[in-house]
Amino acid sequence: MLLEPILIIELVLLGLCTGFLAGLLGIGGGMIMVPFISAILSHRGVPAGLAVKMAIATSMATIIFTSISSVRAHHKRGAVRWDIVRRLAPGIVAGAALASLGVFSVLKGSALALLFALFVGFSATQMLLDKKPQATRTLPGTAGQFGAGTVIGFLSGLVGAGGGFVSVPFMTWCNVAIHNAVATSAALGFPIALSNVVGYVVAGRSVSGLPDGAVGYVFVPALAVIATASVVMAPVGAAAAHKLPVKSLKRAFALILYALSAYMLYKGATA
Length: 271
What we know:
Elements: H1 5-25, H2 30-42, H3 48-76, H4 82-106, H5 109-129, H6 142-159, H7 164-173, H8 178-203, E1 214-215, E2 218-219, H9 220-240, H10 246-270
Antiparallel strand pairs: 1-2
């Protein structure tokens, strides 16, 4: 599949929008990218089930690049809890391997689309309610954090998300300050993305029907365009966050997520 001008424009616009929203609202781009990449690939002849898998894998791959700039900014402010990163990361790698090398390749694209729709619907509800979990306890020991990391890596691998909607509530629930939880979640995005993408590439090597430019389940041309555009736009969104009513924007964005969730439910039912 060649990157014709119209496809490049579509991918640039998608990257700009996801980058801006990531900077503005602190959300991962996967919830937006997966439905749109899935639609773009489907309209160009990729079977619906395969398109969903490629969209999830390609979305996850972009997080490798966007997380780096985010972590640098948080680290300069001393907000990243590297002690938590060191304890959660091994479990994340294990969970990601289980998801991307095993369950992801076994599940049909329709099932993954339905799972993604449920995940986005839950995330939209959390955003709409703006409900903050009560911090009532401390982090578990090394074994407990390994288990938590495994769950985070596994769920992220199945839906193509950076894990923030799981790791941030977990950390705040365990009495980690919210700004530290957000910064630490950004740092965790890199091992989540890298370990899952390796799994997607390995698991997809023998899949038939992949378009030109695909490496395993990852559609590299889309990755290059979206990652470039989103990295450029994310700082603009971050700057706008200090000037715009973010709480109101989150509620409006939640409604958009419900629409995307409905679309992926439709994709799952008809794939």
